[in-house]
Design goal:
Blueprint lengths: L8 E6 L23 E7 L3 E2 L5 E2 L8 E4 L5 E5 L2 E7 L3 E5 L1
Length: 96
């Protein structure tokens, strides 16, 4: 099964943080870690519907690395993988 977002929605897979200890060397347990706010776009919708009925294509595209708010989107699990479904408006920046 695949997720195909509609309109201005995108599907993002969170990128796992590689660093698991503080700069001073203290190891952070899994229960105390915050979820990463960076992810890779894996699917995009057709575009945003404007007030006049036109469809504006989305700025983000599949493969983009994006930065988003801590509480952005709705988390879904599909085939054992966790994804976020969010509106393009919830994306703060594209990481180049």
């Amino acid at each position: 099964m695949k997720l195909k977002p509609i309109y201005d929605r995108i599907v993002v897979k969170r990128m796992e943080e590689k660093e698991q200890k503080t700069p001073s060397g203290i190891i952070i347990p899994d229960t105390a870690k915050e979820k990463p706010q960076v992810g890779e776009v894996v699917a995009v919708g057709s575009g945003k519907v404007l007030n006049n009925g036109d469809l504006r294509p989305l700025t983000v595209k599949v493969g983009d690395k994006v930065l988003f708010n801590k509480y952005a989107g709705t988390e879904v699990e599909l085939d054992g993988e966790k994804y976020l479904v969010m509106a393009e408006d919830e994306v703060l920046a594209i990481i180049e």
